Amino acid sequence: MSTGRHVAIIGAGAVGVISAIEALREGHRVTLIDAGEPGGEQAASYGNAGWLSSHSVIPPAEPGIWKKVPGYLMDPLGPLAIRWSYLPKALPWLIQYLLSGWTEARVEKTAFALRDLLKDAPLLHRKLAEEAGVPELIERNGVMHVFPSRGNFDNDLGWRLRKRVGVEWLELSTDEMRQREPDLHPRYTFGVVVEEAGRCRDPGAYVAALANHALASGAKLVRAKATGLKLNGNKLVAVVTESGEIACDAAVVAAGAHSKRLTASVGDPLPLETERGYHVMIENPESGPRNSMMASDAKMVVNWTDKGLRAAGTVEIAGLEAEPNWKRAEILRNNLFSMFPKLPKDIPASRIKTWFGHRPSMPDGRPCIGYARASRDIVYAFGHGHVGLVGSARTGRLVAQLLSGKTPEIQLAPFAPNRFL
Questions:
Q1: pLDDT band at 75 (very low <50, low <70, confident <90, very high)
Q2: Could you tell me where the beta strands, DSSP code E, fall in 300-351?
Q3: Could you tell me which residue ranges the FAD dependent oxidoreductase domain spans (predicted)?
Q4: pTM of structure
Q5: Is residue 1, in this structure, part of any structural domain at all?
């Protein structure tokens, strides 16, 4: 039976708004708390690459990555960059990050856990989009990975692990790939298509539509910045915001990269860091891919959106406060033109848009989904890193199940917040 509690959900990104929809479905009253506009440019959900990659089960850290750390420190424009000025603060997180991928067995454990979280995600998102009246924003037509050679694919631990966890794909020869992608640079000679995966045509518009659906279903939205959680013993009594307290008897922390201060307010100092990301988008580019794809050499996702051709990827460790390094967006743009030589070189600057935002990342590549130690009235749902959009659909269902005291539909032990405490 539903407890029918008043649930305050902190964060109106993809995880927060879907948690609101699912909590309403369980019979709870819901108040969404966010200082920004749902789906607005300030949100990580807005700048997402748009992939619904249910096969994104490999954490960022893999065995041997420690050998590359000096290069990350020396190259501010590499696929993973660490700013020297932020290194002392990031060091504890980075050590846990390296240790989490120290052995193949550790990476495999995360792959199996993430597979449970992400499996069937495109179908779950399609149902949500239909409920919200925007079914056209979710497509399940597969995604492509392209490689300079077959050897690049065969030597990739990630693909061996994907096979172990049940991911299937279609392999493409050079000719088959050229038939599918005639504008792709000929240096790419091998490809795979993961047919179960999908894409979102406009992540910002999708999150905004889900938020509107939640509000139309009875949720309330409070525009405020949450700063903490207030307990009376082991009972939650309010969410503290800069505008005052919001009384409630349950709360969900889904504030993305800004969740750390909230968990610390109830005694859970979790190792959350931001993997800063960038995207570049070309409006009306006149050329490009026919399918959504990822290039193995550029570590970059290329995806058509309703606003234009978007390229997103790479990681920068520099915290929440540092100014963006827009040269990183230029690298994405240059990689995009390199991948697709037929793109016009004289595209006006007014048609090239750039964006910068904050992925919320735990060092082991798994989000925190579970109860706070201080109170089962508080549910954590953050830290999804590179799988925030794709993982949000099932995360919202899990949040609602936890709020109602039901058995979660997947094993949550790998995502338990107390694994770091």
A1: confident
A2: 300-305, 308-317
A3: 6-402
A4: 0.97
A5: no
Alpha-carbon distance of 259 to 51, in angstroms, equals 24
CATH number of the domain bearing residue 34: 3.50.50.60
- 250-253 and 378-382: which strand pairing? parallel
Q: Which two tokens stand for residue 192?
A: 């795979």
What domain count does the chain have? 1
Pairing mode of beta strands 352-361, 273-282: antiparallel
Tell whether 412 is covered by a domain. Answer: yes
What residue numbers bound the domain in which 293 lies? 6-64+103-419
pLDDT digits (tens, 9 = 90+) for 247-296: 999 999 999 999 999 999 999 999 999 999 999 999 999 899 999 999 99
Q: Per residue in 92-142, pLDDT tens?
A: 999 999 999 999 999 999 999 999 999 999 999 999 999 999 999 999 999
CB 306 within 8 A of CB 202: yes
98 assigned to some structural domain:
no
CB-side neighbour CA atoms (13 Å) of 243: 10
